[in-house]
Amino acid sequence: MMAGAPDCASKQIMESAFDYIIVGGGSAGCVLASRLSEDADTRVLLLEAGPAPRSPWIRIPAGTSQLIFPGKYNWGYATDPEPHLDGRSVYVPRGRTLGGSSAINGMAYVRGHPGDYDQWRQLGNARWGWSDVLPYFRKSERYEGGENEQHGGDGALHVTSPAIRHPASQDFVKAGVALGLTERQDLNDAEQEGTGFLHFTIRDGRRHSTYDAFLRPIAHRRNLTIVTDAAAQKIAVKDGRATGVHYRRGRETVFASAKRSVILCAGALDSPKLLMVSGIGPGSTLQQHSISVIADLPGVGANLQDHLYIHHTYRSTPESSINADLRGLRKYLHGAHYVMTRRGLLSLGASQAAAFVRALPGADRPDLQLMFRPVSWEFSPKGTLVIGDTPSVGASVCVLRPHSRGRVGLRGPSADQPPAILANYLESPVDRQAVAAGVHWLRRLFETEPLRSRIIAEVAPGSAVQSDDDIFTYARKTLQSMHHWSGTCKMGDVRNDPMAVVDDTLRVRGLDGLRVVDASIMPTIPSGNTNAPTIMIAEKAADIIRRATRQAA
Ligand SMILES: Cc1cc2nc3c(=O)[nH]c(=O)nc-3n(C[C@H](O)[C@H](O)[C@H](O)COP(=O)(O)OP(=O)(O)OC[C@H]3O[C@@H](n4cnc5c(N)ncnc54)[C@H](O)[C@@H]3O)c2cc1C
Q1: How far is the CA of 525 from the centre of ligand 1 (A)?
Q2: CA 74–ligand 1 middle distance (angstroms)
Q3: Which of 34, 88, 233, 520 is the most buried (most CB within 10 A)?
Q4: pLDDT per residue over 213-262, tens digit each?
């Protein structure tokens, strides 16, 4: 046992060893558990800290509005006071159930730009360029349009268009075209730049989390053990090899041993935390918390990246907004309609249409994602989401390739303590420039027909916010997380980059039998939402791990 570390003397020893122990049943963990257990003679244990996903809100796409708050299925973290946001702390929801954040997210299916992955290759990750990863995006996918060069047609994950294309969302796209953007039927084609409707991980009007798509259909496999309410406390390491995991279930602490590998899939905030409380991380941080250093890896927890977003609200003509449908009695009518048909407004993801544009000088691919929804909302001080009481629409600016870097640290030596998160939003002047460019871009869209005729007034940021300085002030006060945390166990060239945590086969440097497979391995954040890229990472990791096992046999 490590000095100062949590008491993990296990009260019960699991009798039989597993080949693989996967820690975290989220977007990556569900995919990996499904793929690794395809080999009938491979024994897989999946540990998930949260409960089984039983709430009906998880299956209803509009349920994101309920699940986004802290609770049984949501860790509800927050950042430390952010130095460039006047000391404001930013709310950080994370999924806490099988499916992980894919069980509470906005369901947009966006892969990013091919250049993102070619950049990963240039950074020393030989087998992670676009041509290497595209087969794994395709493998996971059951695209509504069927198989083509870009998409898979018979994978597990349903990828579909919104059931309703609201006329106001259509006019957002038309305004983009009027400004010279290309209209795209598919924002996941290799080009990305342009405007169109988003795709979603929704199947027949229901959320398709990675649990629904990958795990639930095969959960009965005899070689797969799934344990929920099982919070990993520490990775056991002996003579430089990860031998198993101590986890807590109820009042018991259990030790499970792994013959081949322990694989961390706890996400970009909890995977680095688990490494650190296990003695794997920056030596100075570990010593500060009296944790004995097993491997001094300065990169663990560093390189934190997230997409920030700036919210806009516009008062609109009544027919441009669904606010009135989601309030009062009409809300219940739409609820009943959904229950009977699985269609209608409750079957939609958060945003509808998007534009991917280049804003900063010299950008070789889109650096802003502008999103539109025919609805507006606010977060009340009571911690609930309130739909706007006048007809209004919402839009947001997302900075796709932030230059600012944050970090995940420890609040204490125990895995039970939430991670210390510092996003460092707006630390880089480049990000501030991108925010201003994004607000100007979005305003141009709203000033362009046919969208313009639907708008009565800009409510937020509001007419008083004009200069770049006004916009930074507004951003400091209001910007939010897009919840795309990544980068904290960076994949890289472990011979030349001291900050790389895993190599390009996702093995933790300097240790045997330990890998990380989740959004934390992304060296740079992709130009889009991060669920699809995380699923791709898990698909590719499964192939890498199975190949390594065959070679070792
Ligand atoms: C509110 C919200 C909206 C989002 N909207 C979108 C969107 O529309 N489109 C999109 O592409 N992306 C979206 N994202 C981001 C996307 O969902 C994530 O990037 C992705 O799910 C990350 O996958 P992951 O496997 O790295 O982590 P997660 O899916 O978060 O999985 C980590 C899992 O590990 C478990 N865990 C943590 N600690 C332990 C422990 N000690 N022991 C055992 N288990 C543990 C957690 O409970 C969780 O289930 C959103 C995220 C959120 C939170």
Answers
A1: 15
A2: 10
A3: 520
A4: 999 999 999 999 999 999 999 999 999 999 999 999 988 999 999 999 99
